Every structure is written in structure tokens, then in C-alpha cells.
From TrEMBL:
Pfam families xrefs: MauE (PF07291)
Domain (Methylamine utilisation protein MauE) ranges: 1-136
Name listed for the protein in its UniProt record: BT_3928 family protein
Transmembrane segments: 7-25, 51-71, 78-96, 121-141, 153-172
Organism encoding this protein: Lutimonas vermicola
Membrane-topology descriptor: Multi-pass membrane protein
Keyword Secreted listed: no
Signal peptide: none
UniProt entry tagged with the keyword Transmembrane: yes
Domain of life according to the entry: Bacteria
């Protein structure tokens, strides 16, 4: 039985460490996911949205530290009971999002591994079964080498993890799992293969017949029913088709889509600021100096934002910026770079560099 306990202990610990680490390198991604959960369409707890980042950091640190503590055997009873309660929370959230089809990706493995809501739920069912088994056999869990060793490893790990979190929040994720990582080509990421699986939909039609609303399928052809009046149509996705890694990416200028044209540029710099009103003022000042240097070296420079032209005109005048605005969806911009503002350089659609505004004065541009 001890062998089974150790196997379960190892599996749970590694799962929590891996899950925590892939989110630790990009805590803002988890914060955006919390904002989605807190939104009116899911849990309707919008008053918690301003604290999404704090929730994200606390949960990530708890997750990865509990994994480390279980692995080294530090305070096993407290650790296993904590794992049980956090697993119970995950189980509820993933069941809720899967059952009510609220969140398409729970973000339990960050951007490293994508799971469907039901896949995530079943993963958590297995996980909580293992944790319950560990609760029953907790007396078989002992510290590796000694209590002192387990305590020191746990403390050192905590300090390292906090340091990583501070660094990536100040700059950028140390590992980029997103489709906009350096070296990725945006046009290729948007391409749909010819043999790609197509989505399958089911339409249901509501028609008023003899004063009563009735539901029909497309095969019923309710529009041919004598005296029937159309009320509504509902579409349900039966099977998801192929979704390219990069979607919802556009580069619009005054209603004109410039994506194809700009993806041919050899020297393109995008100043990405998903929300100009929330952008760092110090960052915008550094961006001014960087953009001037870039344009002298032949770069085409644009501000890439979800904000309005009116908002940009205020920023442009305040910082005397010499480049225009491109519009894109806010969620896409948050995915491209975790900094507001951030800097992205491209060569014919391939991302060649990404920086936080804090690195603006040290960026070396290609001639």
C-alpha cells in the first residue's frame, strides 16, 4: 500500500507543480482568466475583477507550493488537507464552466496545454480521488531525508517562486507558450489547412402556430407550414471545427484592414497598448524615444490598441508621437504581449522581438 501512496503522492505533486509553474511564468494570463470567471456571464462577481491579479498570484503560489511540499513531505497533514480543499474548488469551477458552457478554456495549465471544459473536469475528478486516497493514507507520507531538509527546500522554493512572479510581472513571461511568441509567423498562424475539420451546427426554429410557440428542426421546414409565423432561431455547435492558433487578429486603420499589407513589411514596430487610458505614463515617454530611433532606422511604427482614435489623439498630442493608430481586439492585444504598453517588432509577419516598456531604452534594433 505504501508504494501506491508514493505513486499517488508523486502524481499529485507533479501535477500541481507543473500546473502552478506554467501559470507562474505568466500570472497576467491567469488574471485575465479570473476576470472572465468573475464576469457577468459566468459567476457574476464583477466587484472582484479589480483583484484578479492578486487572486491569480495567491492561487498560483498556493498551487505550486503545495505540490513542492507534498513532494518533499513537509507538513503532510496540512498539505494534503489544503490540496483537498483547493482541488474541491477547482472541481466546482470546472464543472460549472463545463455544465453551463461558460468558459471554453479554464486555464488550468495556462497557455501550455489546452483542455476542453469537460476534459478539465474529468482531470480534476481523477486528481481529487488521488488526494482523498492520500488523506486516508497520510500517515505513509514522510519528509524526504529529514524535516529540516523538507522545510528548507520549501522555504527556498517559495522565495524563488515569488522572485519569478515579480520578474515576469515587471517585464515579460520567461517562457512564452502563446502563438505570438518570438519566431512565430502571424500569417501562418492564421492559415486554415484545406483539409481542416469544419464545424457542425444544429439550428432549431421557433415558429408561432395557432397562437402557440413551437420548436422545429431544419428538416421540419417550418417556414412551409401554413399560417406559421417566425419567432426565433437558435444555433448550437455540435462539433468544433479547426480553429487556427491565431484568430481575431486584424490591423485596422480608419475602417480599412491593413493586415495583409503590413505583414509584408520587413521592419515593422508595434507599440501594443490594449488600453491607452491604463497605459503607463513613464512607459509612453520611453516609447517616444524608442519610436524616433526606430523610424530613423527605417521602421514603420504604429500604436496597436483597442482604444478609440479620440483616446489616442490625446496621448499622441501629450507625448508628441509621430505615428498613427491601428485598431485590434483587446483580448488579442493582451495575448500578444503582457505589457501596457509593450513593444513588438516583426519582419514579414514573423515576430522578431518582444519587450516590456521597461526595456525600451536597452532595445537593440536590426539595421
Amino acid at each position: 500500500m505504501r508504494i501506491i501512496t508514493h505513486i499517488a503522492r508523486f502524481l499529485v505533486a507533479v501535477t500541481f507543480i507543473f500546473s502552478g509553474f506554467v501559470k507562474l511564468v505568466d500570472p497576467l494570463g491567469s488574471a485575465y482568466k479570473f476576470e472572465e470567471y468573475f464576469g457577468a456571464d459566468v459567476l457574476n462577481l464583477e466587484f472582484l475583477s479589480p483583484f484578479a491579479l492578486q487572486f491569480s498570484i495567491v492561487l498560483i503560489l498556493a498551487e505550486i507550493m503545495l505540490g513542492v511540499m507534498l513532494l518533499v513531505g513537509y507538513k503532510p497533514k496540512i498539505t494534503v488537507w489544503s490540496l483537498f480543499f483547493i482541488s474541491l474548488l477547482f472541481l466546482f469551477l470546472t464543472w460549472y464552466s463545463a455544465h453551463y458552457d461558460k468558459v471554453t478554456d479554464c486555464g488550468c495549465f495556462g497557455d501550455a496545454i489546452k483542455l476542453t471544459p469537460w476534459e478539465t473536469f474529468y482531470k480534476n475528478v481523477i486528481l481529487i480521488v488521488l488526494v482523498v486516497y492520500l488523506l486516508i493514507r497520510v500517515y505513509d507520507i514522510h519528509p524526504i531525508l529529514s524535516d529540516v531538509f523538507a522545510r528548507r527546500v520549501s522555504m527556498i522554493s517559495f522565495i524563488v517562486f515569488v522572485g519569478i512572479a515579480f520578474y515576469v510581472l515587471r517585464y515579460l513571461p520567461i517562457i512564452d507558450f502563446r502563438p505570438y511568441a518570438i519566431g512565430k509567423n502571424i500569417p501562418e498562424g492564421m492559415r486554415i489547412p484545406e483539409d481542416a475539420e469544419v464545424p457542425v451546427y444544429e439550428d432549431t426554429w421557433i415558429y408561432k402556430v395557432d397562437g402557440e410557440n413551437k420548436v422545429y428542426t431544419t428538416e421540419d421546414k417550418p417556414w412551409n407550414i401554413q399560417g406559421a409565423t417566425f419567432v426565433d432561431r437558435k444555433t448550437r455547435t455540435l462539433k468544433e471545427g479547426y480553429i487556427p492558433p491565431i484568430h481575431d487578429f486584424t490591423m485596422e486603420r480608419e475602417g480599412e484592414d491593413l493586415t495583409e499589407t503590413l505583414m509584408e513589411k520587413e521592419k515593422l514596430m508595434l507599440i501594443v497598448a490594449y488600453n491607452l487610458k491604463m497605459a503607463s505614463q513613464e512607459g509612453m515617454q520611453q516609447i517616444k524615444e524608442l519610436s524616433e530611433r526606430a523610424m530613423e532606422m527605417g521602421y514603420t511604427v504604429y500604436c496597436f490598441s483597442a482604444s478609440t482614435q479620440e483616446d489616442y489623439d490625446i496621448i499622441k498630442k501629450e507625448y508628441n508621437l509621430d505615428f498613427d493608430l491601428l485598431f485590434c481586439d483587446e483580448t488579442t492585444l493582451k495575448t500578444i504581449v503582457r505589457s501596457n504598453p509593450g513593444i513588438v517588432t516583426l519582419n514579414k509577419g514573423t515576430i522578431t522581438g518582444k519587450w516590456s516598456w521597461r526595456r525600451a531604452d536597452s532595445i537593440i534594433l536590426d539595421h
